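Working notes for the structural subgroup meeting. M.R. asked for a predicted model of this chain before we commit to crystallization trials. I am recording the input and output together here so anyone reviewing the notebook later can reproduce the run.

Input as submitted:
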Amino acid sequence: MKNSQNKWICAAIPALLLHCSIGTVYCWSIFSQEIADYIGFSKGATEWAFSFAIFFLGMSAAFLGNVVEKDIHKSSLIAAVCFALGMAGTGFFIYYGGQHPHSLVSLIGIYISYGFIMGIGLGTGYLSPVKTLMLWFEDRKGLATGLAVACFGAAKAIASPIMQAMLDGLGDGGIYKMFWILACVYFVMMFVGHLLLKKPEGWHEPQKKEKGQGILSVIKTRPITNYIGIWVMFYINITCGLALISQEKMIVKCIGLAGVVGIISTISAIFNAGGRLGFSAWADTMKDRNTIYKLIFILSIVFTGLVMITGGIRNGSGSILLTILVLCLIFVVNAGYGGGFSNVPTLLSDHYGMGSISALHGITLSAWAFAGLTGNQIANLIVNKTGSFITDDHGNSINPVGYQNVLYFTIVLYIIALLLSVFLVRPMDKDKK
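Returned structure, recorded in token form:
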């Protein structure tokens, strides 16, 4: 029998422990330059470690979704071991790179440790608590999953100052020592989460029929275009979010706020986490959960369009109104980016049922893998190939025209996503004959 105590101990607390740990993957920007300097490679070369981590997060979720479906204890243990091992391995290869500067062994070792091994921990750790939460919180599935996914988004804001303090306080070699310490801390957190995580007794009884179906059979219970629409609009939302978020710091400098970049970054992280919790909780009150995606895309289109029309990024410095407008765009996109993540599992469960939700959610997260390889890179390409770099009053090299041009790319994709949301991902009753 489910009760209020069990659902927090068996689902909510383990989800917080797992997601607060793996969400620190987004702290990469805090120490990426330190890693590059320590091992003797360019920042661009080391950046691929983060891209690989996101790619393998999505792909491991896709390929290991069935493992999560069958045994959350096995999957959560895999997550704890792989995430901690990946962090410890990253620390070792950073140490090795410091002893042997410019060694490809250290760079490739970091790719494998932070990208591949940690990526497997990320994918399985991300999936493991989600279905469990939805089973325990049947009436507020969006709130429950939003809480966990919000922790994934908020982990950066929580861990960043701690990591920075460790880098400053550990002295020479602090970068690899930090990874070794954190590997131990996060393993303990995730292992405790693994021990506590438990599905409610008897959960499988109503789901026997659904559970016997293969993933393709489950997808085919609705028009195939329905799932394609969900996958593509999820991919677009992540791609557009990463395109803008990857340029966020430089955009803030363009509008004359170079001195408060860190504060703006923290606020945007709060909006990211708030969007994950707020949009998913709001969706619980709606008959059609897809309405949330329509709202996210409409808000993103409106604010992107306003900044495009006013040339807000290009002309924002010195104008309070344009500065506020650009900041609103950054915050709205961050909130929508987070909300897109938290609503995917519940949207899928509404359309396809709970029987194979972990495996189906895992396959859908492959969109995250591909967006992780395209969003940042396309934005960087636009910035590097259009406009021109200038030096601002603080000595920063910025390209206001290039950052402004990124918006032409994102608004087109947001419009496509809105059309998909309206015409392909239809409410359940519209497909009934």
